Amino acid sequence: MRRTSLALALVALTLACSKHGDAPSKDQAKDAAVAATPEAEAKPGDGESPTDANTSDAKTPDAKADPDAAPPVDPSLATPANDHLLIADGEGLHEYDLEGKLVKTIAAGPASAPRVLADGRVVFLRSTDVGVELWIHGPAETKAIATLPSAWNGDAYKAQLPGPDLAEDLYLQTAGDFRIDASKNQACIRLQDRNDNMVNYGVELRVGLADAKLSQRVSVCVEEGCPAADDLNDSCYANPLELERTPATTAFPFSYESETGTLSGPEGVTTKICAVASGEDDDYRECAGLDARSPSGRYELLSGQRIEGDYIYEEVILLDRESGKLWAILGGDAAKLLEIEASAVYGEHEGWTMLPFEADVRWIAGDRLWLDGLLIDPSKSSLVRVPGDLAFRLDR
User: Fold this and answer.
1) Is the pLDDT of residue 41 over 60?
2) Phi, psi (5° rounding) for residue 120?
3) Is the pTM of this model over 0.90?
4) pLDDT at 4
5) Are residues 232 and 267 both part of a single domain?
6) Are the C-beta atoms of 345 and 338 separated by less than 8 Å?
7) How many domains does the chain have?
8) Which of 54, 288, 302, 315 could form a disulfide with 273 if both were Cys (CB 3.0 to 4.6 A apart)?
9) Environment class of 366 (CB within 10 Å of its CB; exposed 0-12, middle 13-18, buried 19+)
């Protein structure tokens, strides 16, 4: 969604279109993040300690095990292939197929924000009663690397381990704030008290994946008396979050031009996907944005109406470039695709999904769309909830 940093946080796609008046309070903002962003943005809670979570001794149940029980833990690496999904949730690292079916559990214990390295190892975060920890899953073991300083100390102007005297907890705000610098074999993790629009304090953490060496520097500090934030020109956030696929070049009958809001079809037929306020010049109309195209090129994700405040939300629309059909995505318990006319994109809606800019929204293999835990197959109008965080992969 025109995001340079998409949008990490806890899953659940339950945000419906509603009118927002005053900017949300800090607590309301965090509640919204819990409702629509990946797990790592949630406040760290109780969990399993590092010594309890090694999966190398896991045993496979016999054939008479309960057929409804969770699949056995696979202690080998077994990183899912490109046509399967690696998902992290409160129970562990899991492999899912593209239909949203759980295939097996790869590693047990709370996990979030997984990153698959080029060699197949998985780096992820784990919330425990000590704090947020950085872990790595490899062929031989699953182990903790470091406990992250995740609470702002306003006297020392730095982050440290959570404690009763520290008022501001720091969180991973977006997916792009956790990257791997392969050239230095280190994880780069940016933690802030709020999103980029409202941030007061933030730090960049760097953790060596081999030596567990941890360093930090201030990235944002607006408190009176704060020292200047460190120069971030050598920031490792220029590293890719995920390796990009080769763009599709297949031609389809319909195409959309976001600059003019024009949907063009066969024989020169055009339709506008724009809002024009009464009395305003036509040049100032708002038109749907073009966010991302599916791997085959057949489907495009468009952004519709926007609500701006402390947090920015947008409705999302699906375009089928083969048929020219448009779908709104309904959230809540009865999530589904709703076929709509172009004229309905800018209007009064009930139940249409709105996503914050921090949401994790991306096309994946098989022309599936991932919307913060909602797996969508437009070809079948299929929507399946897959609780957890979808891995970003550098192993393609």
Assistant:
1) no
2) 95, -15
3) no
4) 36
5) no
6) no
7) 2
8) 288
9) middle
Task: Give every strand in the sheet of 214-221, ordered side by side.
Answer: 178-181, 186-192, 201-208, 214-221
Quick one: 101 and 207 in the same domain? yes
DSSP 198: T
- Domain membership of residue 59 as a residue range: 26-238
Other beta carbons within 10 angstroms of residue 265's beta carbon come to 14
134 pLDDT exceeds 50?
A: yes
| Dihedral in degrees, nearest 10, Cα atoms 13, 19, 22, 27 | -20
224 exposure class (CB count in 10 Å sphere: 0-12, 13-18, 19+): exposed
- Lookup result for tokens 């448009």: 326
pLDDT at residue 76, rounded to an integer: 54
pLDDT in tens, 63-115: 344 544 445 555 555 577 778 999 999 999 999 999 999 999 999 999 999 99
Cα–Cα distance for residue pair 171/45, rounded to 1 Å: 12
In the block, which residue shows the tokens 């593209």? Answer: 98
Domain boundary among 212, 238, 264: 238
